Amino acid sequence: VRHEGWTLFRAATWRLHRYAGTLPLIQEWKTEPTRTRIGTADLIRMLDLPASLARISCPLWLCYGGSDLVVPMPEVHKIRAAAPSGTPLVLVPRATHLSLPLEPRALRQLVAWLRATNDQRPTTNDER
């Protein structure tokens, strides 16, 4: 979780330069905030992930962080069950939703899977 906090903090500090100075602060103050009737959480709840996964025809690799607070483990099992057969699921015990792409173990396994998947792929006339 500490990893996730630092990830969010770093991203926020990179955006600070946008507001450095009097003019950007005044412009931001005068700008009307965007209002929407539907939020990201609503869109995620409306997703029909199992139906979407059934339409995937290319190789799929699933990876889950054991400390993920965004996607609960029961959802991961539903996703895995709906994924095409042979889809691997890699569990990284201490990874969070945000830190997972930075985990060396997950990255090594992804690279190995991509290489193996590429080796199994039939070549086309353009690649010969």
Write a concise synopsis of the structure shown.
This protein is mostly helical. The protein has 6 helices and 2 strands, in the order ααααβαβα. The chain has helices at about 1-15, 20-30, 40-45, 50-55, 75-80, 105-120, and strands spanning about 60-65, 90.
Regions with little confidence, pLDDT below 50 for 5+ residues = none
User: How far apart, in Å, are the first and last alpha carbons?
Assistant: 47 Å
Secondary-structure content class: mainly alpha
Strand content: 5-15%
Q: What is the β-strand count?
A: 2
Kindly provide the radius of gyration, computed on alpha-carbon positions and rounded to a whole number of angstroms: 20 Å
Q: What is the average of the pLDDT values? A: 80
Helices and strands, in order, run as HHHHEHEH
Give the spatial strand order of the biggest sheet.
Answer: 1-2
**What is the count of helical runs?**
6
Helix percent band:
40-55%
Q: How does the overall form come out from the CA principal axes?
A: extended
**The biggest beta sheet, please?**
2 strands, parallel
Describe this protein's structure.
It contains 6 helices and 2 strands; from the N terminus they run H-H-H-H-E-H-E-H. By secondary structure, the chain is mostly helical. The protein has a domain at 59-121. Strand 1, helix 5 and strand 2 form a beta-alpha-beta unit. The chain has a two-stranded parallel ribbon. It has helices spanning 2-16, 22-30, 40-46, 49-54, 73-82, 104-120, and strands spanning 62-65, 89-92.
